[in-house]
Amino acid sequence: MTISVLIADDQAMVRAGFAALLDAHEGIRVAGQAANGAEAVTLAARLDPDVILMDVRMPEIDGIEATRRILGPSYPAAHVPRILMLTTFDIDDYVYDALEAGASGFLLKDALPEELVHAVRVVAGGDALLAPSVTRRMIEQFAGRRPRTSTATTALAELTDREQEVLVLIGRGRSNSEIASDLFIAEQTVKTHVGKVLAKLRLRDRVHAVILAYDTGLVEPAS
Q1: Which of 4, 19, 59, 70 is least enclosed, having the fewest CB within 10 Å?
Q2: pLDDT for 67-90, tens place per residue?
Q3: Are 102 and 65 in contact (CB under 8 A)?
Q4: What's the fold here for domain 149-215?
């Protein structure tokens, strides 16, 4: 299946560079380009992309507000796209708000070409981009400044003991293979547990599983 991508960035050179890079890879097609957040919202509804590369700072509507609108319950799209936020700085205050808006990951604009391609494939596959250390630092700081909620804690009651163990390790940034090694179980079993955790807690992806792990106190920042 070909992954369709919408690129939203106010710098024409950045859009052109990303488009040329992605179009050169089999299985990825750039469906459109937006020069600001408002245009991104309009094109997302019309083009129905699988992945949106969304710059954080853009004129008219910034990337966070555009993300909120695109991922909102009333948005007129055939399916919900995955949004990958683009940021210039490794710690960007705006990115915390993007997590709440539903972003599936983050990527620095100076990332290597293969990292960009990998990121698009990862989020298109329904996973979250947690590999770069910058993402984990952002999530740790984001979660550390949020008050814990009884709603989030109550949700954990739906999980088995094993599923809670898996959630803790997700919160610590472990990959499926690392979780399998830590728990002495098969990687396919880990994938099954992760799927159940996301389904039971009604979470979009692993990024939001990490947030919930911090919110509930299962994982502490820098633990």
Answers
A1: 59
A2: 999 988 776 666 789 999 888 765
A3: no
A4: Arc Repressor Mutant, subunit A (1.10.10)
Contacts of 13 (CB under 8 A, 6+ apart): none
Q: Determine the CATH number of domain 3-142.
A: 3.40.50.2300
Strands 28-34 and 105-108: unpaired
- Contact between 11 and 109 (Cβ < 8 Å): no
The answer to whether domain 3-142 and domain 149-215 are alike in fold is no
Q: Where are the domains of the chain?
A: 3-142, 149-215
Is the distance from CB of 166 to CB of 176 less than 8 angstroms? no
Query: How does pLDDT run across 189-212, given as a tens digit for each residue?
Result: 999 999 999 899 988 777 778 878
pLDDT of residue 132: 46
Give the dihedral sign, CA 114/115/120/125.
positive
